[in-house]
Amino acid sequence: MGLVKTGTHCITGRKVAVKIVNKEKLSESVLQKVEREIAIMKLIEHPNVLHLYDVYENKKYLYLLLEHVSGGELFDYLVRKGRLMAKEARKFFRQIISALDFCHAHNICHRDLKPENLLLDDRNNIKVADFGMASLQVEGSMLETSCGSPHYACPEVIRGEKYDGRKADVWSCGVILYALLVGALPFDDDNLRNLLEKVKKGIFHIPHFVPADCQNLLRAMIEVDPQKRLSLSEIFKHPWVADSSKTELELELPMAQVVQTYIIPSEENIDSDVFRHMTNLGCFKDKEKLVRELLSPRQL
Description:
Elements: E1 3-8, E2 15-22, H1 28-43, E3 52-57, E4 61-67, H2 74-81, H3 86-105, E5 108-109, E6 118-120, E7 126-128, E8 135-136, H4 155-158, H5 165-182, H6 192-201, H7 212-221, H8 232-237, H9 239-242, H10 272-280, H11 287-295
Helix pairs in contact: 3-5, 5-7
Binding site for ATP: 19, 67
Keywords: ATP-binding, Kinase, Magnesium, Metal-binding, Neurogenesis, Nucleotide-binding, Serine/threonine-protein kinase, Transferase
Protein name: non-specific serine/threonine protein kinase
């Protein structure tokens, strides 16, 4: 969506990717999706998430200044190399779940994880990108919108059920890990209906060359029942993930942030742009309730 050009940030001197979006050519729903992606990316700062430096706007165009990465998509890397050795696959996987853990700690679910949305920098480090399908999921709520690629979507999403976005992301990560180690997908079919049925059944074959402890991890992540599916905290503790040498990248822990609160005295003091971005995030559907919460002395 949009034209991408390379440029140089005048203040920092950094090379950046400039994504140019023509607002006039977008429907209202697609424009809201872009605004949601911008709002969510502004919330995330992690070494394995593609960084959004700045956003500029005029009547016709949006200009997104993004971190420039030169390694291309993980998908293309896999096509060139085929299946990866366990050590390299673990490095990529750990970086993916590190970024995902940070997102989940901030109530953000990606919902469209796949190798095409995982970029590589010049040092072959993962950068999670494309938050266009992402959503905020507040504690105790469930998501409803079915999204993502059929090959990487979990059974409950395909069945059109309400779902936990965190568990859906874990399933997708399991499929990605399988692809890294096997060089193929656990569920595949030229016929879309057959593919969806395979995903819903969750029956797949793991080749013998995949390490036994990793086979256990894959089956626990690509688990049809979301209640039995591993959580990210359990994945971090899994022997195959925890096994490392000094040469491997350490897991990044979510960065604790101290948030200063400010009591808004009246509805007129609510910033209209901030309010619009909050409603575009998707988890604040009742605008009148959101106004009441913002004016309340207690935290959201």
